[in-house]
Task: structure prediction
Amino acid sequence: MSKDISAFSEEAMRNIIDIHRSLMKTRMSFKGMDNITIPQMASLALIEASTSLRMKDIAKGLSITLPAATGMIERLYKTGLVKRVADEKDRRVINILLTEKGKDIFKKIQFIKKKTFELIFSRLSEKDRSDYIRILKKARDIVVNEKTLIIEDLP
Result:
């Protein structure tokens, strides 16, 4: 691997981490959302996209263990964001669904994310935004199309 790509990779990682940290520090606090963690937000998004999921589906979708998913969903349940509903065909199966409060919070999260991106990218030129999307799509395609990225020369 050339030094140029190595230096680029280090700088890119540093900038991505700095952006992520800054966004997390300045995360807007709206009524009812101040205690929601990023993994919980991801859980709400996963459930919303699928209408209802079983616990094992949530664990798989978030790439976490079943006990970790169970704990996270339990906290969301206690805050009234999700509900447990027995499957009509098999009462032993429990589906996780968003409550009305959960749907409302999810909509607020989506609004905040959209507005945050608009604030950030409104300060860039149209060309910079276009270049950013073009490069982001190329990077996404590499990650999505190559199921396993092989890393050689591990230290």
About this structure: The mean pLDDT is 87. The radius of gyration is 19 Å. Residues 32-145 form a domain with the Arc Repressor Mutant, subunit A fold (CATH 1.10.10.10).
